[in-house]
Amino acid sequence: MIRKNTREFIEFVREKGVLGLAVGIIMGGAITKLVNSIVENLINPFVGAITGAAGNLSDMSYTVPYTSIIFKWGAFLSSLIDFIAIVAVVYFVFMKTPILSKLDKKKEE
Which residues have C-beta within 8 Å of that of residue 47, sequence separation ≥ 6? Predict the structure, then answer.
C-alpha cells in the first residue's frame, strides 16, 4: 500500500511538473533578491547621481507647492527599474535556456 502510494506520488510530481515549479519558485526568490540588491546598490545611486539626487533615487520626490501632496516619483522609478530587471533576468535565464527541462521530465504521450 505504501509502495503503491509512493509510486503514484512520484508519477504525479513528474507528470504535473511540480518539481520544476518548486525549483522555479526557489530560484525566482533568489534572483529577485539579487536583482533588488543590484538595483538598490548600483543602479539607483548611479541614476540618482545623474539626476542630481543627493542620495538614492528612491528618495526623490516632488511636493506640490502650498499643499502636503507628495509625488514620490523616485520610488516609482526605482520599482519600475527593479521590475524590468527581474523580468529580463527571468526571460533570459528561464525562457532562453533549458534549465528546468532537465529536471522535469514530463510523460511522453
Answer: 53, 57, 77, 81
Strands (E), the chain: 62-63, 70-71
CATH of segment(s) 2-103:
1.10.1200.120
pTM tops 0.70, yes or no? no
Domain residue ranges of the chain, discontinuous segments joined by +? 2-103
pLDDT digits (tens, 9 = 90+) for 12-60: 767 767 666 777 777 778 778 888 788 778 877 777 777 765 567 777 7
How far is residue 82's CA from residue 85's CA, in Å, rounded to a whole number?
5
Q: Which residue has the cell 509625488?
A: 71
